[in-house]
Amino acid sequence: MIKRVLGLVFLFSAALFAAPSAEQLRAATLEHIRAETQQKGMIQFTTHLSRRLDAVSRVPTRELVQMAVLAECVRFMQLSQEAKPTDATAAWILASGSRLHRLIDTLAPEDSFGRGLAIIDQLRAHDPAGCDEYFDLILAIAIVLDHSEKVRIHGQMGRKTLLGDNDAVKRYDYFKALYAGGDAKIDYEKLGAAELRFVVHVPVPISELEWARENVRGSLSGWGDTYSSIEYDHDRLQSSRYAWDTGPYTLAEIQEKGGICVDQAYYAVLTARAHGIPAIYFHGSGKSANHAWFAFMKSPGDWLLDIGRYQGDEYTTGYAIDPQTRLTMTDHDVEYACERSLHSDAFTQASAYTSIAEVLLESDPENALRCARLARQQVKRHLRPWMIEQQLLADRKDYDALVELFADKKDIFRKYPDILTQTAKEIEAVLRKGGRNDAADRLMRSLNAGVDDDRDDLKRSFESERINRIIATGDMKKARKELEQLLDEQKDGGNKVFPLIRGYIKLTKKSGQTREAAKFMEGYIEDLIDENSFSPGYEQNLLRLLHAVYTNDGDTKDAAKVAKRIERLNY
Fold first, then answer.
1. Is the pTM here over 0.85, yes or no?
2. 476-496 tens-digit pLDDT
3. Which domain holds residue 405?
């Protein structure tokens, strides 16, 4: 084996300026993994990348593709050091440039690569005849099940919830049969692992999926009707019975007995996934209540995001859990993923430059920065190269360049304020750490002024963080007054201000400003109740907050009056 490695190394070294083939690169990568010489291989490969970039002012398109393969090989060697894949799985992945690319392109930092590789190996051995064709399905199952914990789709399923196991083989067999048999509502060939993760995340027994296939009918274009097909249980809402309490939490029970919005969205999502349709459960806060709705993919790059979303209650942002990362994602993230430029021919070159930049971040930051900027030139709204450049400028402590970078990004990503907000917060933190507080303040004011009024969630976020900075200085009186002003400005948000009220109560209790809090809150909460159509349960929640304010101030008389109002709402 050592002789084979040395032979490949010599071949590669001799070809430093002759661009070895993709097959040679992947073969050399496999031999480095087998010999456990990945570190040597990574140094050799990144050195080649740097030398080629130094030698040319413009990388020919054909060579750029080969250099991207080289970068993906480096990444796979990095991962193999941590996860130690079996020889059979490493050989299988590296035998195909497409498989290697799809694997590297799909993985996220939050993935547990060791567990994921074990699942890939298990499914490859389980279906040696079909594993090539269904690699994306295998990959999707791996990135979803590499987290050991079971995740409920929502938290109001009651005590008789049926949670499925994390058996990768059962899940693979179900979905392979669905797609191979032509019974899925979307053809398998139209989906990649990124979309399939919103299919295979089904934390229920396989029997639930089988029931849905037998009992729930409908066309792809009309799948939104499944949400409203569940009769709304108004009695449950009026009696504030938000958790399921009528027997086992199954699709059949929901279909028979009806439910509230969380059950409608759950039913629509799981039945969609059972039929091979990517679907997402969303929840959010409106003026009068919290709510749940769902989204499904009608065709590649075309998501219907607002099924069951009440338009009159200003549900600004929908939140979901990404089944791959277990992090919060939003409906705005889905909109960005559908950005046309990310699916253009130019994106191939942009992605290649980005892959190279990522592996050169530590060893050759100058060429990493150059490649990131070249990627941005190819596709302006490709986010990753912007992040790479931001990271490199932050490492250099080049504060002026960071501010300029944000100004450029603000023009390009104006239609994606969530991306701009996250970027601004990251750059703001770097500026403040470097003592550039004035520049940080200007950057945040610029961002705040550029956000449309319909994004009230971002406005609250900006102001809340500004108040938190005041709290950090120790000026609690000023922080209280600023928070009172923010609450007044956001009163029209109704139910959306609940978190601000809770933060206000916590601040005033901790800082000993309970008398001031009682004076402000008694009128504020009464106004909220009078001006909004809250259900009895939500009105009770508001009154409980007022009760806490009086209790914090030692006002037992007014606290008792509020307690009686809460009790009366139970009838």
1. yes
2. 999 999 999 999 999 989 999
3. 397-450
